Amino acid sequence: MQYPALGPDNHPLQAARADGFYQESQLPASLLGDFQSAAAETEFEISTNTRRNYMASFAIFQSYCEHHGISALPADPRAVISFIGQQKDVMQESGCQLSKATLITRLAAIRFFHLQAGYRPPTDHPMLLRIMRGISRNQYRQQALYDQQPIMYAELEQLLRAVDSQSSSLLALRDKALLTLGFQGGFRRSELASLQFNYLSFLSDKLRIRLAFSKSNQTGVKEWKDLPYDEPFAAAPFIKAWIDAAQIDRGHLFRSVSRCGQYLRHYQQKSIGSGGRNSGFLNGDDVYRTVRKYCKIAGLGETWFGAHSLRSGCVTQLHENDKDTLYIMGRTGHTDPRSLRHYLKPK
C-alpha cells in the first residue's frame, strides 16, 4: 500500500513540508493507523475558540480574493497587503474602524492556514510588518474606546439580587455559584465553562481549584487558585449549594438547566475519537449571556458589562483591598504584571 506523502496537497492533518526529509517510496499499511492517531493530535494544536476565529477571519480573506480573482491559498504577499488596506478602513455599525487586534487576528489566520498547507506564510513579508507598525502608531484611526467595566462588591450584590428574582430555584443556585466564582477567582469565561467537579478541593480555610488548562497555560502545567472562605461574597458556599441541589459528582461543574428550570439537561461529554457531541453543560458564550442577562435585570446595563467584567472586577477589587501585585497575579494566573494594567480599572 502506498503510504500518504507529507505534502501541501494532502489532507490538512497530514500537511507538512517534505522538503529535506527522507521518505521511503512505500510504507506498510500496518503503520497507517498509528500515523493517523498521531496526526489527529493536531486538533489540539490551538484552542477551539482560536480555530473558530481563524476560520472566520480566513473566510473573509478568501471572499476578498475571490472577488478580485486571485489565489487565497497560497497567497501573494501583495494580496495580503491589499486586504489589510481594505480591512483597516472598514467601518463598523458603531462608526469605528476595526481595531489593531482584529487586523492581527486576520493576519494570524492567514499565516496559520498557510503553515497548515505547507506554504511559506505571506504575512512574513517585511512590508506587512512595516504596515502593522504604522497602524499601531496611527493616531487618526477611529477606534472604539469602549471597554467593559469591572463588577465589584456593589455590582455583584445587585446581580445576586437579580438572580433571586428568577422563578427557578435550581437556576438561581447555579447562577449564584457562577457569578461569585467568576468574580472571586478572576476566571475567564472559558475557564468557568471547562471547570470539572474533581478540580475542586474544599480545604479548612479555602476553596482550592485546579486549572488543567487555561489561555495562558496551554500545555497543562500545574496551576491552581486558592479562594479564602473569609472574603466577602466567597464562592464556596454557593458552589456547595449548587452541587448538592444538582447532585453533581463528576464531569463539568456548570450544567445546563431545562427551559422550565426544574431539572438538568442530559449530560454527555464526548471522548477523543468517539464521534459523539458534547451536551448538558455551559460554554463560554453561555457564561457571557448569563452575566449580561443579570446586568440587564439589575439595571446596570448590558452595554458596559460582560463576562470580562468579573475578571476585571476581581483585579480591581483586590487592588482596592490593598493586595499587592504578586497576590493578585496568584489569584488571576497572570505571569506578567504588565498584563494587569488592562484589567485594573479603579473607579
CATH C-level class of the largest domain: Mainly Alpha
Structural class: mainly alpha
Roughly what is the average pLDDT, rounded to an integer?
83
Strand content: under 5%
Question: If you had to describe this structure to a student in words, what would you say it looks like?
Answer:
Strand 1 (200-202) and strand 2 (206-210) form a beta hairpin. The chain is globular. The longest helix has 21 residues, at 48-68. By secondary structure, the chain is mainly α. The protein has helices at residues 32-39, 48-68, 77-87, 100-116, 126-137, 153-164, 169-185, 189-194, 236-246, 284-297, 308-320, 325-332, 340-343, and strands at 200-202, 206-210, 224-228. The chain starts with 31 loop residues before the first helix and ends with a helix. It has a three-stranded antiparallel beta sheet with strand order 1-2-3. It has three domains: 12-44, no CATH class; 48-137, Orthogonal Bundle (DNA polymerase, domain 1); 153-343, Intergrase catalytic core (hpI Integrase, Chain A). Residues 1-18 have low confidence and may be disordered.
Write a brief structural summary.
The chain has 13 helices and 3 strands.
List keywords for this structure.
347 residues; mainly alpha; DNA polymerase, domain 1; hpI Integrase, Chain A; 3 domains; 44% helix; disordered N terminus
Secondary structure elements and pairings:
Blueprint: H1 32-39, H2 48-68, H3 77-87, H4 100-116, H5 126-137, H6 153-164, H7 169-185, H8 189-194, E1 200-202, E2 206-210, E3 224-228, H9 236-246, H10 284-297, H11 308-320, H12 325-332, H13 340-343
Antiparallel strand pairs: 1-2, 2-3
